[in-house]
Amino acid sequence: MNNTAMRVSPIFLALLGTTVAGGFLATLDNSVARIAGVVLIVLGGWASSLCLHEFGHAITAFRGGDREVRAKGYLTLDPRRYTDPVLSIVLPLLFVAIGGIPLPGGAVWINHSALRGRRIESTVSLAGPLMNLLLGVGLTAAVATFSMPIGLAAGLSYLAFLQVIGFVLNILPIPGLDGYGAIEPWLSGPARRFGEKARPWAPLVIIAVIIGIPGAGVAFFSFAFWFFDLVGGDRLHALIGDSLFRFWQ
């Protein structure tokens, strides 16, 4: 086994370090430090979760028979290994910064022919969004369990809310999203060919609908908040975190 193909990337560790540094700043009794802390928590934490999302796909594929993911470095949590780091890391961070919508992006290439059956293919697709859900539940549990300053609670709650949005958005059965990837192995040939044609554009159309059509964004975020409440999230802290993160708006 090549140990370098399994070793955790220093870039991922730096992203985690950024998140921790933000957590420290968010505890300080200073408005500027608190805002800076929330920004670092959200950006560092979201970038880290993007890596973990793709790791979820990769490790599930590895266990399901695709040994190529290790050789490609997908198990190192290194975003430089992704098929398109700009679409997978930079663009999602930009969308979070300007609109609070965690845009999904294709990142790891899976050799589906090496996987042991359609059930494994579906599981590989679901592993990414389930990682977001797990992170969201863990963060909400931490805020609910431990007493912490308002800045830290707000930053972690907003980050947890982004994880929930990421799960809700990615689980939709639309070409290009993981929810569609979960059902794709079970579809007919013509349906899969149609999905292939729609894959590059469908996620962007969904984002355009959420942003551009009156009422669509309200309905989407209302459902996301309902689900956030369902997993134990603190809506007030999440809203405070949102306002601190986008302080310039």
UniProtKB/TrEMBL annotation:
<dbReference type="GO" id="GO:0046872">
    <property type="term" value="F:metal ion binding"/>
</dbReference>
<feature type="transmembrane region" description="Helical">
    <location>
        <begin position="86"/>
        <end position="110"/>
    </location>
</feature>
<dbReference type="InterPro" id="IPR052348">
    <property type="entry name" value="Metallopeptidase_M50B"/>
</dbReference>
<dbReference type="GO" id="GO:0005886">
    <property type="term" value="C:plasma membrane"/>
</dbReference>
<keyword id="KW-1003">Cell membrane</keyword>
<keyword id="KW-0482">Metalloprotease</keyword>
<dbReference type="GO" id="GO:0006508">
    <property type="term" value="P:proteolysis"/>
</dbReference>
<feature type="transmembrane region" description="Helical">
    <location>
        <begin position="201"/>
        <end position="228"/>
    </location>
</feature>
<dbReference type="GO" id="GO:0008237">
    <property type="term" value="F:metallopeptidase activity"/>
</dbReference>
<keyword id="KW-0812">Transmembrane</keyword>
<keyword id="KW-0479">Metal-binding</keyword>
<keyword id="KW-0862">Zinc</keyword>
<feature type="transmembrane region" description="Helical">
    <location>
        <begin position="158"/>
        <end position="180"/>
    </location>
</feature>
<keyword id="KW-0378">Hydrolase</keyword>
<keyword id="KW-0645">Protease</keyword>
<comment type="similarity">
    <text>Belongs to the peptidase M50B family.</text>
</comment>
<protein>
    <submittedName>
        <fullName>Zn-dependent protease</fullName>
    </submittedName>
</protein>
<dbReference type="InterPro" id="IPR044537">
    <property type="entry name" value="Rip2-like"/>
</dbReference>
<keyword id="KW-0472">Membrane</keyword>
<feature type="transmembrane region" description="Helical">
    <location>
        <begin position="130"/>
        <end position="152"/>
    </location>
</feature>
<keyword id="KW-1133">Transmembrane helix</keyword>
